[in-house]
């Protein structure tokens, strides 16, 4: 069983990978004083369409895997796939709540992870912010996007997104939403590059255990 310190360290690593140093420092500071003020951009996009050949990465020996249940994760481990860069405990918790992982391997080394949620319960394992996703209207939300620094710039992110979207279309999903911290400039650029539309801005305040969330719709944008 992991210690509380180990859980905190793994959570800090996830924030640093996904959002960068500034959000990590802010998270540490606000955790210490139980106070947080954050802002986010909310994006929406229709699922990627086209031929797989149009989204193939630059690198060779690519293997894609969809993981929906813990047994599939165990099969990857038993099959010799290297998941040392994946927080297994966190992944198992997400899978238990219904989140789905899209994993890209080079040879058998983990190169890219994408997570997606199809319910409010699974969404809360990706992040706890209460942005609106209409799951009953065939929407999904994304999170936990990460690319191994060793393989960045190879087109793996968009390929993983394409493969994930192919899977989601079979589930009847038509749209996908995600949030990006207002301080994560790189994340915003990557999100719009992949065809997402800036839908709203959001403000989050947490103080003395009370949480406040406000979304402001953006009427028009040229991010499509």
Q: Can you offer a commentary on this structure?
A:
The longest helix is centred in the N-terminal third of the chain and has 16 residues, at 4-19. This protein has helices at 4-19, 21-33, 70-78, 88-96, 120-126, 156-170, 185-193, and strands at residues 35-46, 62-67, 100-106, 109-117, 139-147, 175-181, 197-207, 210-217. The protein has seven helices and eight strands. The protein has an eight-stranded mixed sheet with strand order 2-3-4-5-6-1-7-8, sandwiched between helices.
CATH level 1 name:
Alpha Beta
The CATH architecture: 3-Layer(aba) Sandwich
CATH superfamily: Gcn5-related N-acetyltransferase (GNAT)
Query: In the CATH scheme, what's the topology name?
Result: Aminopeptidase
Q: How many structurally independent domains?
A: 1
In terms of structural class, how would the helical and strand content be classed? alpha+beta
Rg over alpha carbons: 17 Å
Q: What is the overall pLDDT average?
A: 87
Largest sheet: 8 strands, mixed
Binned strand content: 25-35%
Helix content: 25-40%
State the strand order across the main sheet. 2-3-4-5-6-1-7-8
Distance between the termini: 45 Å
Q: What is the global morphology?
A: globular
Oligomerization state: single chain
H and E string: HHEEHHEEHEHEHEE
Number of contiguous helices = 7
Question: Which residues form runs of ≥5 with pLDDT under 50?
Answer: none
């Amino acid at each position: 069983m992991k210690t509380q310190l180990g859980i905190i360290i793994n959570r800090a690593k996830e924030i640093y990978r996904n959002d960068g140093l500034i959000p990590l420092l802010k998270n540490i500071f606000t955790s210490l004083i139980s106070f947080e003020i954050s802002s986010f951009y909310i994006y929406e996009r229709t699922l990627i369409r086209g031929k797989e050949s149009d989204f193939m990465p630059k690198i060779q020996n690519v293997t894609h895997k969809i993981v929906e249940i813990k047994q599939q994760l165990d099969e990857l481990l038993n099959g010799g796939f290297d998941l040392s860069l994946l927080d297994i405990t966190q992944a198992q918790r997400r899978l238990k709540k219904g989140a789905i992982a899209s994993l890209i391997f080079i040879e058998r080394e983990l190169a890219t992870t994408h997570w997606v949620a199809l319910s409010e319960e699974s969404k809360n394992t990706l992040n706890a912010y209460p942005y609106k996703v209409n799951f009953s209207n065939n929407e999904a939300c994304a999170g936990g996007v990460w690319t191994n620094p060793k393989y960045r710039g190879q087109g793996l992110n968009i390929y993983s997104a394409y493969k994930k979207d192919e899977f989601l279309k079979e589930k009847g999903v038509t749209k996908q939403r995600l949030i990006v911290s207002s301080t994560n400039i790189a994340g915003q650029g990557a999100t719009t590059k992949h065809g997402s539309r800036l839908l709203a801005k959001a403000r989050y305040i947490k103080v003395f255990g009370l949480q406040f969330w406000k979304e402001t719709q953006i009427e028009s944008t040229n991010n499509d």
